[in-house]
Backbone:
């Protein structure tokens, strides 16, 4: 545990704060209402902080578990690859950037609210893919790993069309724009990752 905290302090801190805040909000409706994203208010320059705080709370235990398991498998590795402050900036920036399209889309819908770290978690996953495009990605209920280079495009296409159809209560816009934010921010911090990405894909799949 001490070694994990020393090697990945930022990922560890985000992980712990998110779980604690979510559990607290489960039993405190006032806290939940204070932290949840309300696009109508944000668009009118009120409660702007919720573009960040909404990523610290989740709707239920399943929502929390899914995001935190995904985060656990990729965030700690990504911090080691990127650096501490770089990872922290990626996470916070992606929370904000993944929410902005939702704020615009629902700016006149007073009833709409959303929460969860999905946008930032998507950024973490896609940031990791840039460093490890040949790694395997497990998706329930598929029993075999899917190459990251295949998973990435499929995920983006799925999010895009799911967002357009809007048949469920999942904020697919946050997933989509979070993933794109992760890709862009990683490339900004490390332009050489593009060359590394291309070389690894070529070596793994075209030799």
Residues:
């Amino acid at each position: 545990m001490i070694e994990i905290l020393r090697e990945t302090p930022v990922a560890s801190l985000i992980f712990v704060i998110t779980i604690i805040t979510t559990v607290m909000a489960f039993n405190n409706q006032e806290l939940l209402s204070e932290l949840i994203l309300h696009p109508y208010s944000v668009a009118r320059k009120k409660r702007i902080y919720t573009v960040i705080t909404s990523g610290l709370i989740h709707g239920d235990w399943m929502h929390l578990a899914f995001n935190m398991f995904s985060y656990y498998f990729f965030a700690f590795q990504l911090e080691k690859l990127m650096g501490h402050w770089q990872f922290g900036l990626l996470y916070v920036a992606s929370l904000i950037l993944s929410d902005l399209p939702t704020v615009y889309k629902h700016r006149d819908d007073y009833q709409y609210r959303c929460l969860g770290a999905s946008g930032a978690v998507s950024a973490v996953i896609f940031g990791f893919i840039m460093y490890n495009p040949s790694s395997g990605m497990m998706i329930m209920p598929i029993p075999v790993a899917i190459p990251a280079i295949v998973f990435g495009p499929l995920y983006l296409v799925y999010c895009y069309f799911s967002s357009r159809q809007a048949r469920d209560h999942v904020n697919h816009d946050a997933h989509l724009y979070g993933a794109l934010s992760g890709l862009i921010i990683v490339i900004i911090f490390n332009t050489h990752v593009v060359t590394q990405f291309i070389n690894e894909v070529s070596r793994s799949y075209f030799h």
Q: What stands out?
A: The chain has eleven helices and two strands. Residues 50 and 175 are 17 Å apart (CA to CA).
